[in-house]
Amino acid sequence: MKHVEINESGGALWVILNRPEVRNAFSSEMRESLKEALTKADSDESIRCVVIKGAGGNFISGGDLKKFAELIERPSCEVKHSFYNRVQDLNQLIMMVMSLKKPVVACVEGSVAGAGVSLALACDLVVASDNAKFIISYSKVGASPDGGLSFSLPRAVGIKKYMELVLLGGSISASEAMDYGLVNFVFDDAEVSGKTEELVSRLCNGPTYAFGKVKSLSAYSESSSLVEQLHHEAVAFSECASTDDFREGVSSFLEKRKANFLGL
Question: Which Gene3D superfamilies would you find in this protein's record (predicted)?
Fold first, then answer.
């Protein structure tokens, strides 16, 4: 059975993480398939949004500890080299999610732990079921965070709460995640798939090129001064203004009709 299923529907690329028997523990095959899907989304103009979802009622339960147990039987130098490469592989995936010039949505149900939390936080929008639980359990296996968690989580919850979660091995409920700004929407478990589809449909019918500029500007803001950010905004706006979607947006507003964006 494939660890990842890929489906295209209505301009969206749905990436379904498919290891329900282990609550979608992150495997190397899953990481590679995700990277292939993101590469496809980047080059295919018909794809206007990417959705990442777990099968079987869970998102990602973290790293595959059974595989870890095999790896740590090797000499220490090999263990260090192997895990360094694994984390760098994850890092590449995280950067691909964040740099993709199209919206990436995480649909989070049930358990999400370790690298799964990192991946969810790297996505542009997070839709969660009310039974979702974000688990920070690195300290329980004697490890430190990976996948950019030490970058994204303290910026969301504050350094003190971050240290509490990472040092003591805590968890965050869906409602708490909503309060902290880690997720955008929380729905009843029975509704979350349908609500995600509604959101994705809106994104797929939006101005995709402009959405890409929104993501770029957000990334620039992490390290830019105000003067630099103003320049980035001027460049981005002028580039959007030269697109067919901008012309359609202005025309539809003046004509009092719904815009028909083509993502161009």
Answer: 2-enoyl-CoA Hydratase, Chain A, domain 1, Lyase 2-enoyl-coa Hydratase, Chain A, domain 2
Instruction: Mark whether 133 and 186 lie in a shared domain.
Output: yes
Residue 154: CB atoms within 10 Å = 17
Residue 260 lies in a domain: no
Q: Where are the alpha helices (DSSP H) in 24-75?
A: 28-43, 65-71
User: Is there a single domain that holds both residue 79 and residue 168?
Assistant: yes
* Type of residue at 183: V
Inside any domain, residue 215 = yes
Domain residues for the domain of 127 are 4-204
How confident is the model at residue 163, as a pLDDT? 95
The band of 71, judged by pLDDT with boundaries at 50, 70 and 90, is: confident
CB-side neighbour CA atoms (13 Å) of 155: 9
pTM, entire model: 0.94
| Model pLDDT for residues 225-235, shown as the tens digit of each residue | 999 999 999 99
Same domain, 222 and 148: no
Number of domains composing the chain: 2
In the prediction, which pLDDT does 110 show?
95
Chain position carrying tokens 């968690």: 149
1: Cβ contacts below 8 Å, ≥ 6 apart: 18
Query: Strand 12-17 vs strand 4-9: parallel, antiparallel, or unpaired?
Result: antiparallel
Residues 15 and 92 occupy one common structural domain = yes
User: In DSSP terms, which residues pair with 63 in a beta bridge?
Assistant: 26
Q: What pLDDT sits at residue 90?
A: 95
Rounded to the nearest 10°, the torsion over CA 35, 38, 39, 42 is -160
In a shared domain, residues 66 and 106: yes
